[in-house]
Structure formats: structure tokens, C-alpha cells
């Protein structure tokens, strides 16, 4: 009764405000008797079946994603720091693009999780689940130990770009450095838009993710085109998104500065030949040393290094001790 | 090992330790309230397919067409306890189609044939109109187009069918493309206790 | 569909609900809604009104001029001046009363909770159920009301909307027959999940029915042959369970639950044989 009275009032209010004729939308329906037949009247021991309730998020997927993320980063660290083989890193990139990219369709990813973490820190009503926390934190922890192994071949966005670097040209270092500031601007904007009041909140990293549409084979046309442009450009300019735009890359560049063990190029038996510098498509080798904040641990420098090859050949020739 | 080098290493270790402590603190702060979680869900009082009074309007199929998943994360759900178990269910049959020789509409409503119809309880051996029928939606077939929801709505039906987000399927995108497409802003992201 | 007269009475009289309409021998119109009974002259003037104990679901006037109002688990009986004369309860049996028929010594109460019609005598003694031969526990009413009318021979004509039929019963509950079938295209059939929702008989035994989704008024001859659609565009699409009454002149009184007024419809002379 009260409800229908309120509805009546609402109707009157609406009428007076809008000047519209009868507003059917305001009709409250009466259910004075239980119109759905009861189990008794259906008879024959009928029992109302369980309604298909929305099931909780599939826990096993969350666990699998976190575990695989951790394992993939460990594998990348081992391949980059210990095994020192580019072929293994390429294989890892393919696997991660296939799983995190095409199979899991690019969600959840640490890059986007920046926004959710930012909102959760600012908005008391907002929370992120455990696995999003893990996905945000793990690559940063990994960077503190092994450098940017997440970028190496684990991040689907990074790995898909890694795989298309075919004819890299050198970007002038000053331009490279200047463009590198963009990711900080992007990071700042992403956080600002994310922590706006809920009604105005926008997740710009996800909104302008150029690759997620490719992983999902659907999306806004201009974003798909942008993703294609990034990939085509990436054939000649190594990983443009990672180097200049990725907001999570900005964080990783800070954390990797203090890496416990980081990528290094056979420093003990250096030839001063500079082949590695030329081989790096990311301009991350300065004075024949990998710049740990910029190095994506792709392993191209190993492949170009005559000393490294000599070592590996020795290893192969030497009988197991 | 030179002094300068060892000093740099000490500083690096300190910075690394500080960063780890910082990350641990961040994890702690986030984990404290991680017991509830945000998920997309549909407000059925806003969804044009289910909201009362939205009569004679076209069905909105944004949930089926706009989800990034191949088969949308949205499903139609029949709340059995509210279902009238009608002989001729306007959500199951296309009730405007021609009547067949059995006295039933000749066509079904669901374009994916995702609804099953079965007589339940005591069955009248002579008169199929005198039975109650259970309408079960096959989640594997349903893509959440909402046609049955629209047809089951009061006053044509009892409104026992509604659209729900399947959280086990939903990717929980920050930029949910259904939410972007939803004309009624019925697609909301909220803290759910059940997820 | 050619309406000669189409006027409304009881406009602006009800604020929440209008559920029942009935006529007496002198053409006065009785309407129940909200929690009151309102009596109008045949010209539509408000003559009298009074409160009911519970929201009234239906109304009937007996040959003595007493007004019977069906409510939840009870029936209130008022004299012509609106003074409460009696209250019937039948604890454990009677649920929501959505239609009342009184004839000679018999009182029939449509019980939407049990989905049967209860047959009492004039002093309130329960005699039998009508409609319980359906082992499904009664009439199929996804729409929520049971409505019926009694013809000159004392036969009950009951709307069984879930089965898309109008059924005929003797007072002892014996099913005499039925007419009607589902059809979503042909107006001769009953469309949707559950129609007709309400029913009334005119003086020559024709069956006037109301339907929901979309709301329309139709007429069948006493044998169940479809005669015509009286109107299918007069009511809000949300209107359902529109109660009906027919006066001696063949005018149809429809309780419009959305506009909260009683529409008075009469067909053009040439369509009335």
C-alpha cells in the first residue's frame, strides 16, 4: 500500500514536472495472491529446482593466472640471467602471448591493475580482490630481484611487440629519452582519471589499450587500427608502447633500478666490438652495458655476441663433468 | 672491490629492502579490504527488458551483442519460484506466430532454442492445457539477448525471467563494453557479497 | 470496434487501485478500489461512499440491494446505505475473494488463493468447491484473479485464463463444457499466456471478456462463437484484470486499473443483433 502510494506520488510529481500524459512506466503491478503455482498444486512430489545462480568467479582461473605469471617470470629470469638464450625467451613470448593474450583475452593485466589499485587506495568503498593485488605486485617484486623480466616475454602486450621486431632502426637517444617521459604523463593521467568520484571514473589505460582488441578479435575499429599501427611500426621501431607509453613500464623502470641481479652482457670477456649495442633495438645498451631500467631482457645481445657463442660452443663441446 | 662500488651495493640493497617493505605495506592495505570484491551486475529495475512499465518497446540486445566474449557473460535466468508454469509461455513461444495443429504457437521465441519446456507434476493424460510446465534455460546456449525477459514481463507474464551476469565467465573488464553500450545504465559495478 | 458512447465515470475518485465494478437493477454503478466502495448514479454522479475494512477486490449487489465486497479472507456485506451488515470469514478455507455471485439461496465466492470457486448458501454454510475437478488444484490463473458470472439458468461461466477457456459449471461443480482456444493472431482466440482474465454476461447471455497484454474487450455469443472486438486501443498497455459489468442496455462497464476510472462502452446499434 505504502509503496503504491509512493508510486502514485511519484507519478503525480512526474506529471507535474514533465507535463506528460499518463506515464505507464510508473505502474506498480499488484501480486495479491501467489500466482506461481505451489509445489503442492503441481503435485507428484514436484520439487522446485535450484535456480541457476550466478556462480562465483572461477577461483581456479585466478590461481592459475597468478601462478603462471610467477612461473613465467621465473622462467624469464632463468632464461635471461642463467641460460642466456634468446631462443628460449622467444618461445616464452609465444607461450605468454598465446595464454595471457589470446586465451585469457588480456584481462587481468598488471598494467590496467594500476588503476584498480589506485581506486582501492583512495575510495573506501572500492576494493580489489586478492588476485588483482598479486598481479599488480608480483612483477614489481620480480623487478627488484631480476629486472624487467615481466616485460621480457611475460606481458602479453610486450611479448606481441617483441615478436614483430624484425627490422629495427635506432631511435636517436635524445628523442628516445624525451618520448620516455610520455609514460609518466600517461601514468599520472591514468591515476587521476581512476581516482575521480565513481560517477566520473574512467579507466583510460583499458580504454586506450591498443592490443586488447587484437587479442579478443573485437573492439572499437579505431583501437584495432591503432593496435595494427603499433605492430607495423614495431617492426621497425622496437616496442614503441613499452618504451614510451606503458604506465606500468614507468613503475618497473624505477623498481628495476634496484634489481638484485640484472641482465648483463658477458662483462668479463668483453671484446669492445660494440656488436651488442647495435643489436639492441631498444637503445638499452650504453657503453656496452645494459641499462637495467630500460632493458627488456630480450637476449638479442647474446645472439650477436661472438664471445657468448664461443662460450656456448665450448660448453657444448666439453663433455659433461 | 672498490669502496665506491661496495657503497653503491649497500645503497642498492637498502633501496631494494625499502621497496619490498613498501610493496608489502601496499599489499597489506589492499588485502585488508579484499574480502569483498567488485563485480559487474545488472539492475533489473533499470534494464529495459525487465523494468516494469517499459511496454511496447524494442528488446535491447546489448548484453548479447556487446560483450567482448564470443558468448556473452550475461544469461537469462528463470526464477522458478516466481514462474507461472504457463501452458503457453510467451517467453518460450512466439505467441504471435500462427497456431499449429496442436493448438500451440508454431514458432519459438528464443533464436538459439535455449529454453526447454517440460510438463511437470501430475500430468493430465487427456488435456495438455491442464498441466504445469517448467521452462529451463540452457546456460550453454543462452547469450543473454533478453527477448524472453521482455516477453515474460508483467503484464504479459509474471516477470520471472531476468538477466544476470555470470561472474565465472565475466572477464571483469574495467571498461566493460556492455556497460558502455547499455542505454539504461543498468549495468553497474558494485561490491557483491556472493562473488 | 465502433463505439457509440465512450465515457468515463469515477474519474479522479480512486488514487491507488480500482479493482471491481458492479451494477444494480436501477443502473447505479458500484466501484471498489483503494479501501472504499463508491456508488455512482447511472449518469456518473457520486451518490455515496464508505470505507471497507480491507482493500476491496470485487463487488456484487444482491436482489435486496445489499452490497457484497470481497476482500482478503473475508467478505463484507453492507446495506444500501453503506452500513456494515455482516462480515463473512471462513478461516482456513477462504482466501482472496476476487469475484462474487449471488443467486437465490446460493453465494459463490471466487477464491484466488485456492484457485477455486467456493459455493456457500445464503447463511454462510459451505457447500462445495467448483473447479477442483482439475487435479491441478483449480483454475490456472497466472494473472492472479478468478472471475466468473452466473447466467439466467444459474450456470456459472468462469474464465480459466491459463487454459485459454471459458468454462461452464453447475452450482454443484459439474463441468458442463467450455469454449475458447489459444490464438495470438485471430481475435476469436485468446492470446498470450493467460486470457481472458475477466468476464461478464449481458442480458441475452452473450459473454463479454476482458484480456490483458494487450488489453481489449471482446464479445462471444452464448454458444462461444466469437462476435467482435469491442475495443483494443482504449486502455494503457499495462492494464490487466479489468473487471466488467454489463447493464440492461448492453453497455459495458470496464474498471480501468491504470487510469483508475470506469469506462462505459456501448456498441453501435447495427452491431447488436
Biggest pleated sheet of chain C: 4 strands, antiparallel
| N-end to C-end Cα span of chain B | 56 Å
**Average pLDDT taken over every residue of chain B:** 90
- The helix fraction of chain C, in percent, is under 10%
Helix content of chain B: 10-25%
Biggest β-sheet description of chain B: 2 strands, antiparallel
The total tally of domains of chain B equals 2
Specify Rg of chain B, calculated over alpha carbons: 26 Å
Quote the average pLDDT of chain C: 93
Spans of chain B of at least 5 consecutive residues whose pLDDT stays below 50 are none
Structural class by helix and strand composition of chain B: alpha+beta
- How many distinct beta strands of chain C? 24
Element order of chain B: H for helix, E for strand: HEHEEEHEHE
CATH superfamily of chain C: TolB, C-terminal domain
Main features:
heterotrimer, B: 195 residues, alpha+beta, 2 domains, two-stranded antiparallel sheet, two-stranded antiparallel ribbon, 4 helices, 6 strands, 24% helix, elongated, C: 273 residues, mainly beta, Neuraminidase, four-stranded antiparallel sheet, 0% helix
Structure characterization notes:
The complex is a heterotrimer of chains A (about 325), B (about 200) and C (about 270). Chain A has about 325 residues and is mostly helical. Chain A is built from 18 helices and two strands. Chain A has a two-stranded antiparallel sheet. In chain A, helix 3 packs parallel to helix 6 and helix 5 (about 110-120) packs across helix 10 (about 180-195). The longest helix of chain A is centred in the first third of the chain and has 25 residues, at about 60-85. Chain B has about 200 residues and is an alpha+beta fold. Chain B folds into two domains: about 1-35; about 40-190, no CATH class. Helix content of chain B is about 25%, strand content about 15%. Chain B is elongated. Chain B starts with a helix and ends with a strand. With about 270 residues, chain C is mainly β. Chain C has a single domain (about 5-270), classed as Neuraminidase, CATH 2.120.10.30. Helix content of chain C is about 0%, strand content about 45%. In chain C, strand 22 and strand 23 (about 250-255) form a beta hairpin.
